[in-house]
Structure formats: C-alpha cells, structure tokens
Design a protein that fits this description.
By secondary structure, the protein is largely without helices or strands. It contains 9 helices and 2 strands; from the N terminus they run ααααααααββα. A hairpin with a 5-residue loop joins strand 1 and strand 2. The longest helix has 5 residues. It holds the Pfam family SAXO1-2.
Amino acid sequence: PETPYQPPATKFGNSTTFQDDFVHRGLVPRESYKPPNIAKLSDAPFENMTSNKLSYVPHAPEARYVKPPAEYKPSTQPFQDLTTHRQDYQGLPSQLPRSCKPEAIKAASNKPFQGSTEFRDRFQPWPVSLPQVQKSVEYMSPTEHMDLTTTSHTDYIKHQIQPFVSAKPFSLPSKSSVPFQGNTTMRDDFQPWVAQRQGMIRKQEEMQRASGKMEDLTTFRAHFIQHEPQPSFSFKPQNAPLRTDVPLQNETMYRSEFTPKKISTCLASFETPPGFVFDNYDDRGHRFFRKMTSADKIETPKEMVLTA
C-alpha cells in the first residue's frame, strides 16, 4: 500500500538510499603478530678484546711547552718625530697673494634723495567723484482687500451633463448541470505510473573470498632465527683535564713595573676642608681659606650643659 508522504520534522531529515540499506558493522579486532620490543640480555660474557687493546702501548704525557715571554727593553734613543713630509716639504718663500676684489667704498652725498620716477611724472592723480546712490522707494502696504477672482471664475459657464449609457447588452453567465470535463490530450496519453524505490546496485564480486582461516606464515617468519642482543662497550677516553706539577708563572709586566702612588683627596670636594679655616669672600663669590693655627684649634663651646 502507498504511504502518504510526511515531511521530516528536523533539518536535513530525509534519509538517502545508502543510509537506509547500509548495515553498520562494528570494528573487528585484529590479532597483532608483531614481536614485542623488549631487549633480551645474554648470559654469555662479552668479549671486549679488540686489536686496539692488544696492540696499544700507553705513553706518559709530556710536559706542555710554555714559551717564555720576551723581555721588554726600552730604547735609549730619543723619539724622532720628523716625518717625510716635514723633511722634504719645507715650503718656498713667496709673497702673500693679493685680492682682486675691489674695496667697498661707501658713497655719501649731502643732496636729498630724488624719489620721482617716470611713472609718477606721467601719471598724475585726478579728482574722482563719488558714485551716486539711488534712494530706494519706501514700501506702502495697501489698505483695500485683495480681489482673488480669476478669469476662469468670472467667465466659466456651467453645463448640465447627462451620464453615458452603454448600448452593449449585458452578458449573463450561463450555468450548466453537467460536470466539467477537464481531460486533455496530455492527461489521456500520459497516465501516471507507479513509482517504486530502486534497489541498491551492487557490483558483482570478481574474486571469491576464502571461507577458511588465513595462514599468516610468511617467508621471514619461517626462516627468521632470533639472536640475543649483545650490549656494546664504549672505548672513548674520559674527558679529564690535563694537569701539571709545574707552578703557574703569573708574573706580568704590570706587576713588575707598577709603582704604587699615594691617593690624594681634592680639598674642593669638602664644604670646609680639614686643617683650614674660612677667611673671606672676593667680589666674584670665591671663598678663601687659610691654614689652621694653634690658636684656631681652641674652640669655645656655644652651649654648656651642667649635670649634677
């Protein structure tokens, strides 16, 4: 029986033919034949004898050669600052060059400056009259009422117009009791046919699948011989620093020729230098101090506190 079409209630709810005929099958667990990645230790002792160990003869390290520093010998001759330019180019005696530029002489005159020009002489000023200003007429508002009648209002003649009567007879609709025949040539020749859902097209398998259990034995698995891993031994020498019993020569030219000097303190950094007494000011504001004598060292206290 044909079922009526019902639109889906959700968006994109129409299912496809693939969704209707598809049967979901779960994941089939596969057995892993990969050997475990676990290192197997060997019980046999490791043979670490190599040709290097058999033929190697150890030698004692030699002492490191230290180049002695060159001794500084100052020169006894005075420094010659005479260069090739000073020696070969002594200069030629000649006169000083004279300037060809004329001297700037200021021309002074007692006559008054004549400021008349050709333009001032030919174009003398002429009298100009002011433009006449026309006096505007004062607006006077009308006292009578405005006549709003127009030519159309005064000359228009009203006519009596009769309504237009149509001479065409009225067409009355003809009613019939026979039902309307809506068949057409298109409907008679093209009858609707029953629409059925097309089944899923499946391609015929060219190869037949085996029904028995798969034999997963490969050539590698059949001929593989498992060996126990043997750990490798490192023959790399240790990164130990080279040491020597010879003491380090830390004597430098600066240490041998350095002469310590007494550090002097600038007296200007003190507001009142120690050992000096303020004397007076000069006209520029400079302060002058004099050395302290034995009489200045006896200071009189400003305040005295008596305690019982």
